[in-house]
Design goal:
It is a single chain. By secondary structure, the chain is mainly beta. The chain is 0% helix and 55% strand. It starts with a strand and ends with a strand. The model has no long low-confidence stretch (mean pLDDT 89).
Length: 186
């Protein structure tokens, strides 16, 4: 067992029988009261966030989580099939673990998958992906002065807003956390 001093942001705890990931973790020492830890945790099954106070030195159960870099192979209904690069084992990962960012995934991309025992508990795509624009309205010369955006369809079918100077066939970098255009790649 670990105590509250061993916990940091990103740690996965077993709290009330459920797996929760720590989102915020602060040590507080109010006036003449005892010190405590204020924690904000996200339940990995339901996605709900809960706040709780822990006494300093209180024992908590840290879940043993193993992270693996896997290769995304294909979409299979509610699951995305990913392959372990070392053992070539194929693992179905529920689509909802990726959130909205699964739409930017393309076959062959590397994703980070977290396991507790043999169960998949977390999955995250690469932070930035480079994709080619398959369709957008043509840009005009001199359209670089304003911050006006236009919709563009990427080669994997996702839609993103890009500046007016970006044309069909250009390679762009997209932030998967926000779904926004970052820059044009040369």
């Amino acid at each position: 067992m670990a105590n509250t001093g061993d916990v940091s942001v990103g740690t996965v705890l077993r709290y009330n029988g459920e797996l929760c990931q720590v989102v915020e973790w602060q040590h507080r020492t109010p006036g003449n009261l005892r010190a405590f830890y204020q924690g904000k945790m996200r339940n990995l099954k339901t996605g709900k966030t809960v706040e709780n106070r822990f006494r300093s030195g209180e024992e908590v159960e840290i879940a043993r989580v193993e992270y693996k870099l896997m290769e995304f192979l294909y979409n299979d209904g509610d699951f995305l099939i990913c392959m372990d690069k070392e053992s070539f084992e194929q693992v179905p990962v529920p689509k909802e673990l990726f959130g909205e960012s699964f739409r930017f995934l393309k076959e062959g991309m590397e994703v980070k998958v977290s396991f507790e025992n043999e169960n998949v508990i977390l999955a995250e795509p690469p932070t930035f992906v480079e994709l080619v624009i398959s369709y957008c309205e043509p840009g005009l010369k001199g359209d670089t002065a304003t911050n006006t955006l236009k919709p563009a369809t990427l080669d994997n079918g996702a839609t993103v807003s890009v500046p007016l100077f970006v044309n069909e066939g250009d390679k762009v970098k997209v932030d998967t956390r926000t779904g926004e255009y970052v820059e044009r790649v040369k």
